[in-house]
Each structure stands twice: as C-alpha cells, then as structure tokens.
Amino acid sequence: MEAIEIVKLLGEGAGQVMALKGVSMTLAGGQLTLLMGPSGSGKTTLLLVLGCILSPNSGAVRIGGHTTTGVQPEELAKVRRQHIGFIFQSYHLFPTLRAEENVRLPLDVRGERTLAALAKAQRALTAVGLPHKFRSFPRDLSGGEQQRVAIARAIVGNPSVILADEPTAALDRENGLAIMGVLADIAKDPAHAVFVVAHDPQIERFADRILRIEDGRLVGDEQGSKRLN
Amino acid sequence: MLPAIPLTLTLASRNLFHDRIRFVATMIGIVFSIVLVTVQLGLYLSCSRMITAMIDRARADLWIVPLNAKSFEDTAVLEGEERFRAFAIPGVADVISLVSGFTTWRKPDGGTTVVIVVGIDPDHTALRPWNFVEGSLDDLATPDGVIVDRSYFNRLGITGVGQRAEITGLRVRVVAVTNLVRSFTTSPFIFTTLERARHFVRAGSNNSTYFLIQVSPAANIDEVRARLASYLTDAEVITPEEFRNRSLETWLYGTGAGAGLIGGAILGIIVGTVIVAQILYSSTKDHLSEFATLRAIGSSASYIHRVILWQAFLSAVIGFSIAAMIGLIITRVTATTAVPVIMTPLLTLGLFILAVVMCALSAVSAIVKVTRIDPAAVFNR
Known about the structure:
Chain A contains 7 helices and 10 strands. Chain A is of the alpha/beta class. In chain A, a hairpin with a 6-residue loop joins strand 1 (2-10) and strand 2. By secondary structure, chain B is an alpha+beta fold. Chain B has helices at residues 7-18, 20-57, 81-87, 153-156, 194-200, 221-231, 240-253, 257-286, 288-296, 301-334, 345-371, and strands spanning 62-66, 92-106, 112-120, 132-134, 145-149, 164-167, 170-178, 189-193, 210-215, 235-238. The interface between A and B is medium-sized, with 40 and 30 residues.
C-alpha cells in the first residue's frame, strides 16, 4: 500500500480544517507499523484514508493495483473487502452473531458461503488463540477475547493490509499487550502489512516501524524497538 | 462444496427475534393487517359468489334477458315469443325457461316476508337447486311443493319439510331443504316449478323472466348470439360472463357494498404497512452501528439491503402464517352464517404475496436510512 501526498480537508466553511497536509508513506508486508501522535494530529483521518473509507482531496492511495482517488463509494467498498482488514477500538462485533459467524462476515460479504468459509473462520479463531470459543456470543467473552475475535475477523479474508484503530485502548494493560503480541505475530507473515494507530508508548516494542504524526504531517519515521532488538 | 446459511439471513432472523417486544409488535401489526384484509376480501368473495350463484350454476351458453336487466334479481317479464324465435335459429340446441320474481310469503303463524320465487323445469338440468340437506328435486312433483333454504327458516317462520305456508295467497308446502343457497338481496330464494312460479308472480302461461340458450357443440356462440339478437327487440342476448359482471356491478359497486369491503381491505394494508415500516425503521436505527461496521469491512449497499429485506420477509412469513390460521378459524366459524367469510387457495396465495409486498414496502424507509450510512461512524466509538 502506498499513500502519495495525501491532503484531506474535514468540515465545511469557516469550520473547515486541513487534517492531512501532504502525507506520503508506504506499508510493506511482513511489518507492523505503528502510527503515534497526540489527539487531533490526524491519526484516525489517515487511517480512514488508507482504509479507503475517506477519499483524499488531493493525492492518491494505491493498493493492490487500484488507485482510490475519485472512486465511487461502492468501488471503495469493493477495494476494502478485497484488500483490507479492519480492527476497531470498540471491537464492533455483532452481538447477535456467534464468534464464528462474526469472523465469517468478511467472507460472506465477498460471497464466500461454502463450508470452506466455516473452516477458514475456525482457522482464524485458532490463530488468535480462541479455538474453544467458536460458538460463543460476544456477551460471553471478555474484552480481550472480543478483540481477538475482531482480529480473527480482520485476517480471515487474508487481506494484504490490516488497519487497527487503537486496538488496545479499551483493554487493561495485560490484555492490551497480549493483543499487540497477536498482531505482531500476524505481521511476521509477509502477506500482511499491519498498521496500528495508537498513543500508548508501551506498545512501541511490538513495532517494526514507528511513524509519528503531528498537525497533519508525518514528522518521524523510525525503526521500532522490535526491529532494533 | 456445500453452502452455509447466508449470514444476511442469520443476522436478519437474530435481529428480528432479539428484541421480543418489538417482534411481538411487528407480528401484531402484520397479523392485524392480514386478518383484516382476509375478512374484507373473504366477505367480498362471499358476496360475489352469492350474487352470481344462479348464473354460475346455470348451464347456459347465452341468456335472453329483459332489456337492460341489471342482475338476476332484476325481474322484468319476457312475453315468451323469444323462446320460439330462439328455436328457429340454427345452432340453438335448447331453450329453457326460467321464472324469477319477488312476491310475498305468508308464514304459517302469521306475518309476511318478501321472497324471490325461482321457477325451474325440474326435468331439465339447466338450473337446479343445490346443497340438498333434506328431500330432493323430485319432490317438486308434489302438488304445491316448494324448496327453501335452511338458513331462512326463521325468516320464513318454518322449521322443516312438511310445513305449509302461502305465497301470493296460494298454499305451498315445503318438500325439500337446501343449505346456504342464499340471495344477496336478503330475500330468500323459493324454488318451485315453472307453472307454480308463474302463478306466484302472476305471469302468463308463456311468460318467463329469462331464457337459457344451450348452443350445439358445432355452432359458434358469437354467431348464434348475433342472429338471435337481430330478432329480438325488447330483450337482449348476453353471455353468462356479461350477466355475472352486470350483477356484480349492480350489487357490489352500485350499492357501495363492494367499495366498502375493498376500502376496508386497503385500510388494513395501509395500517399494516405503516406499523411494520415504523418497527423496521426503529430496528434499523438500533442496529446502525452494525450496518456501519458491515459497510466498513466492505459490504456493498445491496448486502445490507438484503439483511433488511430478509427481516421484512421473515416478518411477512411468520405474520402471514399466524394470520392464515386465524383466517381459517374465522372461515370455520362463519361457514354457516348468512355471509360466510370465504378463503380460497388463490386468495390465500394472494394474501401471502400481499404480506410479502407489504413488508418489502415497509422496508423502504429503513433501506433509505442505511444507504446513507457513513462507515467512518464506527471509528473512535
């Protein structure tokens, strides 16, 4: 995935702000990239642009041979379901679906509705350490387990990019670190580029690369402590 | 590879059953609406059948009726020469007289009521009473014999076969009884022979109200009709279908009864649609963050629409099933009443389609709501 000179304006009229001011970056497979920055610095806006949820006002995002500039919402959705896995701060699991069904959703959305899809969902849940929670509903899972199910949902479709929006923010320290461990394991696979937006310095040790953003501009691009170690 | 159940269906069913109070409210809306429509249309069907029963039962290819006759009960008198003219037309196999007219029935214990006398030829199969529960057509051979319907016993002041009364001052005896052979006018049908009927309505010996024309199998009905019509001045030749339509037009639409029934059915559909639309909309609003999540992970708008439409379809199927059972009970309970509610397989199928269409229409506002959903809404929440 590549972002080139991304400019993004938010709001209208007098309230309009330039949230991203010419951001360029590349995400490589087999790396966990951490995006750090203070509140209001443009972290989530960048995640949304990279995730093909917002279109940039200028610049381009390239992913899997597609350029997303000027693309209609339905085409953007198609890019998302083919190339991107999302992990949200508040998990956003479907309370009425079992863990396996939650994980299977991205496959169902793609039209994969064979029993092979069930097997993929089971493998994804096993990969995040929840093989025994296949039939559990979210209400029966702890916060950490729910985030693991959300990670399984993000990886089940084998996307080239996994975008995580503050995945540890709703968890205690122990569970947060465990979740980062899972994400770091996923990032060992060269087929996946993992991009995590966070503000907790304690998780820097899981990063291969750390980007720092301030006032809509990337102000730092350094190797993570994982790589240094 | 075997298919798994689509998650759109799973999600729709779980959303539907998850909130039980809302589910019950949805069902009440649909069931109320479909039962109301069932009753209204069932009554409409029942009235239609009652109005056209004589025409439907008669074995005739054409009817000679008094000029501008509006319905079977619109009883002017034909002189009788029409019968002889009809016989002269090539292709006419038979011409059967039928006498019908309003007159007065004097009850055995006093008091009178208006009845419709129907005079038939008992030796001919062109039109015969049906649904006999006591006696038979042959009993009309009994002097003064008449056939009445059981559902009119109270109205006629009698209790069964063998009882005597008077029509137009002439003595009659009940010789046979039918079940639910009823008139839409509320005046009971009294079947008797042609001769007796002519006496009762004070018609001449050749007079008839209608002539039923049976056309030879080899003849062309339209040609026979055209020739016959050219010979008649005070009568017209119409097909059973035309006579049926005239009767329905007169009684159902001319009186407003049909409009009332159809209006009630439309009201039921509107009320049901509004109730289900409200509930589907509020259910969709409650699940907006889930739909935004779906959108964020790349679902198409049509995928989300399918969830809502499945929910609407499931509501329709369950609601219709309950309504159909209630409808069945209503048809059973009203089966022996003056105006039974009728349910036919075609009406049942129509009601099912109506329930599905109603719920699909109800889903429109919810679909509009989710179409505008912003997937960015799931971030930072």
